[in-house]
Fold this protein.
Amino acid sequence: MKQTLQRPVGLEEGVSKPVVSPIMPSVVYGSDCPDQLDAQYEGRAHGYTYAREGHPNADLLARRIDALEGMQNGIVLGSGMAAVSAVLLGLCKAGDHVVGGSDLYGRSLRLMKEDLPRLGIETSLADATNADSIAAALRPETRLVLIEVVSNPTLRISDLEGIAEICKARGVLLAVDNTFTTPRALRPVDHGADIVIQSLTKLLAGHSDATLGWVAAKDPDLNDRMRVFAVTTGMTPSPFDCWLAERGLATFDLRFERTQQSAQRLADFLAEQPGVARVLYPTRQDHPEAARAQSLLQGRGCNMVSFVIDGGRAQANAFVKGANGLAFAPTLGDVGTTLSHPASSSHRALSEGDREVMGVTEGFFRVSVGLEEPDALLDAFAKGLEAARSA
Ligand SMILES: Cc1ncc(COP(=O)(O)O)c(C=O)c1O
């Protein structure tokens, strides 16, 4: 690149190399001449041009997630919802029909219920724990099925393999949001998924300091279409966020194992406490899909636990206030444990009756277990429960 007074002179190239990826915030990249730019755009030479179209930090991160998920050429985007949107809006057209699991993440449900129909794409929701229910929702014009493996907040487990078989037989694309499970518990591509989605904001980046998503399709043409759609609609991630996520990813395996162990212990502890009406954890015998958790997740229950305390809002308030040191914050996958109360957050738009049908009552809590010392964690829950019982 030609140097001018306004451009950095660059450092002399040394014989040693950094062991950590550099952050590259440049929005534009200079090329030598129009012929070189042609070569770049035509794929004959590798080079970045404009950061919205791609930048090194996004690619460094994408290759890491690709390797974990067993996919190729995945795309890192500005949020998990950008990844869901790239699938639904980038691959479907007016006249298509999309089926979603009825327990999808709230914003994905909103896309299904409000935005796709506004654009002429019809949608239906069906119970993803039952492949027959998904099969019954398919139509000749169904283009795509979107499911999650473990549902939020009730932690039900989808019949991923049954649904994959049906989608394959009917020529329908299967997209799987693997955020709750992560590739450490399961790789959707190994179970018949055509498209895999991650909110990197959660466990993979793991520190609640970067909002990012990733998506990859097995079919390179579909992948290209999502990439072009994302570039056009500006779903670009920030280089700094990508860098933070790459750093977070370095400890993902360790964080997953530790938080899973603590989650299992917390679930068993809660099940024995007075004032706890129900505990949901995939590998517990009393989970509605316990057998599927063993076969599909190979006994990996992951880091999320849900439970129900006796009483109503007063007891819920008392529990949160009493559980000192646990953040009451609607996210998951952070290094610190977070508590979420779906009736007042993610599921507040539903009527009390609809929440009741899902089992999401005022006493329902979802826990994302973090890296705290396990005894201290149980102690905080014990204090919260004691406060709820006395409320
Ligand atoms: C399963 C699932 N998918 C997607 C998302 C959206 O991710 P983001 O918040 O990064 O947009 C979330 C967020 O909680 C989620 O739980």
Notes: The two ends are 69 Å apart (CA to CA).
